[in-house]
Amino acid sequence: MTERTLVQKLASTPDGPVRVAGWVETVRDQKKVQFIVLRDETGAVQLVHPRTDVGENPVDDPIAAQISALTHGTFLSVEGELKADERVKLGGLEVKIGSVDVAGVAFPEPPIADDSSIDKRLDWRFLDLRRPEQNLIARVQTTFEHALRTWWIDNDFIEIHTPKLMASASESRAELFEVGYFETKAYLAQSPQFFKQMAQPAGFGKVFEIAPAFRADPSFTSRHATEFISVDSEFSWIDSHDDVMKVHEQLLIAGLTAVKEKHGEAITAAFGVEFEVPTAPFPRIPLAEVRRIVAEGGYEIPRADGDLDPEAERRISEWVKANHGSDFVFVTDYDSSIRPFYHQRHEGDGSITKSYDLIYNGAEISTGAQREHRVDVLIEQAKEKGLDPEELEFYLDFFRHGVPPHGGFGMGLARVIMLLLGLPSIREVIYLFRGPNRLEP
Ligand code: AMO
């Protein structure tokens, strides 16, 4: 049997015998000639079968009968003759069918169409993922993750895998998933926060992890999932959160450069987005200043001393784009009252933390900070937040046996991809979305 050629490779394959395999996108069953558009994971190709003139006896053209019976979505393997032909709109080539081998028949009525609602499409996610745009999203994410990993490895970071089953909360008591654990109970990790920090007293220096995180967040926004991939890094010997931001922006530049090089044109064709690779340094604006800018722009943040709401994020992003030409902005120096106990506070002004949120194209993608590594201060801050230091003993021990100053960040992978491609929801970019009312498929 002729070896299978991927559709993408046909353009560089000489005319002659080939075998292609994929699923039926369309069939045009005409009187004299039949066409199939066959798609595989790399693209689509036109297959052609000129009907044999069989007069009153159509069974004498068994291939024609086979093609007429094909349903949309059926997986086929086809042997035939490849021929370059400029007149063919789809890729300037076609394959004249020699034989058709049906591998997996599809029901005649596809359960979803291109204009189905996102919920319906997610019900049939494996069919939805056959769309070329979905294939591209998955490739963009692959390239992005690979580039991040390469950057970390080139810069001597160690990859860690922290447990997702935990005895206590990792971010906050709210939004915690509880699971039965033999005679007791466990919690799903909301973040690798404590254990990536543990790598610092462990003497690892610089670490990263790309792994799931779980939040029992009941909201139905376009940017929240109950399970998401968290891109995390943590490293020692920093002087402030500015050192964390420097790593963060270099990492993102590496990731976006790779995506631009490999998929820039395809992204523009599929999503109409012409994204720019950012340059360092990204603008840095303290939160107090952001509040002022947003207020001057005529928007009242609902809670004056609270976090930015989505509208404020959108507005500061717009302002930064207009005034600094940047798609990214680090909003720095968050109030201690709205940050976790482990964020280090400014010397001389304990009301603000050495922390930041990174906003990209209008929405938060990341939180980072220098961590408090002085155990007495850490205990005080935990108590102030209403936490019981006894429950945190395992974590506090990290800081009792020698630890360097350190910091890091966590970044939501799906949010980055969504905002990069200008898509309306993370549901579009997550392989299988998990939300309050979605556990299947
Ligand atoms: P934070 O809670 O801000 O910080 O989370 C970091 C980033 O993770 C993403 N994210 C989510 N993505 C999808 N669905 C969710 N429910 C969800 N929740 C969070 C966001 C967010 O910016 N430990 C700290 C990070 C650190 O300081 O290192 C943390 O988890 O993109």
From TrEMBL:
It catalyses: tRNA(Asp) + L-aspartate + ATP = L-aspartyl-tRNA(Asp) + AMP + diphosphate. One of its GO terms (molecular function) is ATP binding. Residues 193-196 are annotated as: Aspartate. It is found in: Cytoplasm. Residues 139-441 form the Aminoacyl-transfer RNA synthetases class-II family profile domain. L-aspartate binds at residues 171, 215, 367, 371. Keywords: Aminoacyl-tRNA synthetase, ATP-binding, Cytoplasm, Ligase, Nucleotide-binding, Protein biosynthesis. GO terms for biological process: aspartyl-tRNA aminoacylation. ATP binds at residues 364, 412-415. It comes from the Bacteria. PROSITE patterns: AA_TRNA_LIGASE_II (PS50862). GO terms for cellular component: aminoacyl-tRNA synthetase multienzyme complex; cytosol. Its EC number is 6.1.1.12. HAMAP family: Asp_tRNA_synth_type2. Homodimer. Belongs to the class-II aminoacyl-tRNA synthetase family. Type 2 subfamily. Catalyzes the attachment of L-aspartate to tRNA(Asp) in a two-step reaction: L-aspartate is first activated by ATP to form Asp-AMP and then transferred to the acceptor end of tRNA(Asp). This is Aspartate--tRNA ligase. The gene is aspS.
